[in-house]
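Limitations

Structures in this collection are predictions, not experimental determinations, and the ligand pose is part of the prediction. Treat each record accordingly. The example that follows, with nicotinamide-adenine-dinucleotide as the small molecule, is included so readers can see exactly what is and is not provided: the inputs are given verbatim, and the output is the predicted complex.
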Amino acid sequence: MVLEDLIEGWDGAETVIRFDRPTGTWMFVCVHSTVRGPAGGGTRMATYRAPADGLADAMRLSAAMTRKMAVLQMPFGGGKAVLAVRELPAGEERRGLLLRYGDMVASLGGIFRTAADMNTSAADMDVIAERCRYVYGRSRDQGGAGDSGWGTARGVFHGIRASLGHVFGSEDVAGRRVLVQGVGNVGAELARALAGAGAQVLVTDLVADRAAEVAAATGAALIPAAGALETSCDVYAPCAVGGTLSSRSIPALRCRIVAGSANNQLAAPADAARLRSAGILYAPDYVINAGGVLQDLGLEELGWDRPALEKNLEAIGTTLRGIYARADAEGISTEEAAERLAASRLAAA
Ligand code: NAD
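Predicted complex:
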């Protein structure tokens, strides 16, 4: 796919592209929708085979942000930015790139608001904020909401409770076996929360030392990364990478619920129906992982205090309960039910 075809064929509102000559980086900002308000979405920094792959990623992710904002009833639309770098920059090179990217976002006058995403951090948002005010998730000592992993994990925790209630008739996590795949920012925090609530936590990570550290701190059991998905458990919480739910992996799963933070968990759209046929309840990823967005936008833009944030994080559970009820009533997958909810909220706006 070439850039022109992607841009011509996209159903989003606006594509903004710059080439950053000093670092050889393609900077893509995709504003999918401003129907509900200014477009919000993270800034991802990554290497791609070709610039067009970075643009395609930004387009797909920004459409998902539109659905996420609509389902959450946030007064924002969907957007996403990708900095398609030759290699992940560090030091002054990184700082220069982020400052120039900040100028680019500032020049859009607020139709696009951003935060950290894959390979970007609160410290990076602090640098962008030197040039641009449309940035959230800055460091707490800079007045920002800090790393969004906390809010994301908290939202997943509430989502797991709602999912348990739907499948087992009780939302209590005590004694439930939960496999947390990937114990980075989100997974480690989730493992701590689950263990604290009495769950039997199993952790796995490609970086074995990281998993061992979290296991030691939380009392979780360690599971080798290879074959982890075949572990018998009540809940599989993907908190590592996308695409772990596929025609190959689904038949091997030995869980009743999939509820985790990873983006794009379904390898293909048909995998939602596959999970339903397998009798596995799937918490749509963009709904259950919305806590980070609530944390950033709630604390920094909407004037929420911590109790208001917690109330809104709990509401992720309420939203999921509604989606599960709709899926049952209409005989459709939970993913389809979430899509219908998002579409109706966009139409209402
Ligand atoms: P992270 O990079 O801090 O952690 C990811 C962890 O997964 C790392 O420890 C990594 O070693 C591990 N991992 C990678 N591949 C693995 C594999 N195949 N098996 C086991 N472990 C593997 O990322 P994060 O911020 O914790 O985010 C986790 C996921 O949640 C990502 O998919 C991210 O896109 C998504 N997400 C994060 C947020 C947030 O606020 N941080 C918000 C929404 C969605």
